[in-house]
Amino acid sequence: MKADVVFVNGEVITVDEKNSIVESVAVKNNCIVAVGSNQEVTEFIGEATQVIDLQGKTLLPGFIDSHLHLTIYGTNLLGVSCINPHIKSLHDIFVDLRKKAEETPKGNWVRAWGFDEKEVDESRFPTREELDEISNEHPIVIIRTCNHTCIANSKALELANMNETTPDPGGGIIERDDNGKLTGKLIENAHMQMFQVAKYSEEELKKSMKLASDEFIRAGITSIHDAGGYGEGSQNIRIMQQAVQSKDIRVRVYALIGSLTNSHDFVNQMVEAGPITGLGDDHFKIGPAKLFTDGSSTGPTIATREPYTSNPNDHGIIYYSQEELNRILGNAHKKGFQITAHAQGDRAIEMFLNCIETALQEHPRDNHRHRIEHAGIASPDLQQRMKDLGVVIIPNPVFMYVNGDVYRQYYGERVNVMYPARDYIDKGIIAAFGSDTPVTYSDPLLGIHAAVNRRSKSGKMVGENQCVDVVEAIRAYTWNGAYASFDEKVKGSLEVGKLADIVVLNESILKVDQTKIKDLHVEITMIDGGILYRSEQLVEI
Q1: For residue 107, what pLDDT is reported?
Q2: pLDDT, mean of residues 64-92
Q3: Which of 71, 100, 260, 477 is deepest in the core (most CB within 10 A)?
Q4: Rounded to the nearest 5°, which phi and psi values hold at 293?
Q5: Is 479 in contact with 364 (CB distance < 8 Å)?
Q6: How far apart (Å, rounded) are the C-alpha atoms in residues 504 and 163?
Q7: Where do you find CATH 3.10.310.70 in the chain?
Q8: Architecture of the 79-194 domain
């Protein structure tokens, strides 16, 4: 048998059981047919074989991002970006919003994303009145970088039926000034409710999914675990599946049954409909049932057992009571679903662990692989419970790079147990890394950099005790992600018989200065044995 493609002279990090490092890989059709030394793989080279000389560069299994939001990332690309390099102030954002409004039909939504009040000169949120000055004929909404808070103009509030007499929703705040007037700022569940009316059209969703998939391929991401979007969950799942079938989405998708808007309704709907975790194929598969339990780590609105270091009167926001969690996700577990929850603070993590424990006591199941998304503040007692219950954790080490300085301010010494990758490895807890894009950057190399170095953007150490080595971080972005979706037998490592999802970097990741890992980039992305990205250009099918 001769291979279609053979990579030679590389630093091939296989991520197999022994973390073997070899020189060469051979691919036939959509599978890996040989892994080993150049000499061992030579026999697979025929006249028609494409041979790629890596010249010492790193070759890895395709990256698996175990927590991101495909539709939100894609639809953001259709709106106004608050993270463009030219954005320095609120005025700069207002200029771009005004341009967007001028080219948008009256009555249609104008949206901005990625806003961080700490990154603009004014160090504050815009006001409702400032957005009204841009347009009172377009509903306008600016989404904070965490996707848990937004600021809206009067037209948007009107369409959402929010006024001075509207009560705060459970788990959310419609902010008012001292005179009871709406400021336009919507926090947590109030923000989520806004996107029941600020949702995107089906045409916009389809376009956005292709844009997002193409960006992920450029970053070397070959599989994603999609953690849900705004709007009606079943619509997003349907459009996503259709986009996979039409190859508008070319990354593999493990679709969490969750929504940023009324996630419990979507979970209940899917549980009653019949399909369970695992339904699908290697390109699209149904994942776990998911709820939101608390808020944003940078809001800060996460639910903590002790008050915030920055505010002794604040413990954050809880979305559901213990009884509600147990009932909704307990029923999903009973019906055969893997279950998971967005749980950032230690109080929220504890509540969800209680839910898992109760579910397993009432309906025991081996190899359930129930997950926790984020698990931001994971104290030693919670880590032990994770281990005892066999829970898979989905931490976000890139948060320490992007948000490390504010974490030190908000949570003090608790940064030493935030997204604690070192502790998970030492305790034998499987943790699969995710970026949470568009909350942060989708680049897995930045995530690996953050896990290895644990330094913020300003260069400060943030929980130095949680540093991991490079190969450990790579495993968390590959094999562990496959394990989290029950796919470790078909992907996540470079072994004979596994799917040919492969990434080539521009240098050796093991020889580069560890503080420069974030400066590496992807040269080749292969999915299913086909090279979809090479030399800054997507390969069209």
Answers
A1: 92
A2: 92
A3: 477
A4: -110, -30
A5: no
A6: 53
A7: 79-194
A8: Roll (3.10)
Lowest mean pLDDT of 179-193, 361-375, 420-434, 487-501, name the range.
179-193
Q: Where, residue-wise, is CATH 2.30.40.10 in the chain?
A: 5-62+498-538
**Model pLDDT for residues 103-119, shown as the tens digit of each residue:** 999 999 999 988 999 89
How many angstroms separate the CA atoms of 448 and 443, rounded?
Answer: 9
**pLDDT tens per residue across span 123-141:** 999 999 999 999 999 999 9
d(CA 528, CA 281): 13
pLDDT value of position 539: 65
Tokens of 288: 């776990």
Q: What is the pLDDT of residue 103?
A: 93
SS3 210: helix
Topology (CATH) of 5-62+498-538: Urease, subunit C; domain 1 (2.30.40)
* Strand pairing report for 24-28 and 5-8: antiparallel
Q: Which amino acid is residue 493, in one-letter code? A: S
- DSSP 8-class letter at 416: G
CA angle 95, 97, 100 (to 5 degrees): 115
Separation CA 268–CA 318 (nearest Å) = 20
Phi/psi region, residue 243 (left: phi>0; alpha: psi -120 to 50; beta: rest), is alpha
Q: How far apart are the first and last CA of the chain?
A: 25
Which residue matches tokens 């040989």? 34
Distance between CA atoms of residues 317 and 299, nearest Å: 10
Residue 31: beta bridge partners? 28, 499
Confidence of residue 444 (pLDDT cuts 50, 70, 90): very high
Phi, psi (deg, nearest 5) at residue 53 = -85, 115
Task: Quickly name the fold that domain 200-484 has.
Answer: TIM Barrel (3.20.20)
Residues of the chain with CATH 3.20.20.140: 200-484
| Residue percentage of the chain with pLDDT more than 90 | 86
Q: Which tokens sit at 190?
A: 């109030």
Rg (CA), the chain: 23
Residue 99 makes CB contacts below 8 A (sequence gap 6+) with none
Q: Amino acid letter at 230?
A: Y
Closest CA to 349 of 307, 303, 316, 314: 303
What's the rounded Cα separation, in Å, for the pair 431 and 477?
A: 9
Q: Which two tokens stand for residue 34?
A: 């040989």
d(CA 132, CA 218): 38
Task: With a cut of 60, say whether residue 404 has pLDDT above it.
Answer: yes
Please spell the DSSP secondary structure of 352-399, one letter per residue: HHHHHHHHHHHS--TT---EEEE--B--HHHHHHHHHHT-EEE--THH
Q: Give the integer Cα–Cα distance in Å for 194 and 150.
A: 9
- 431 forms beta bridges with 393
Residue 311, classified by CB atoms within 10 Å of its CB into exposed (0-12), middle (13-18) or buried (19+), is: exposed
- Whole-prediction pTM value? 0.90
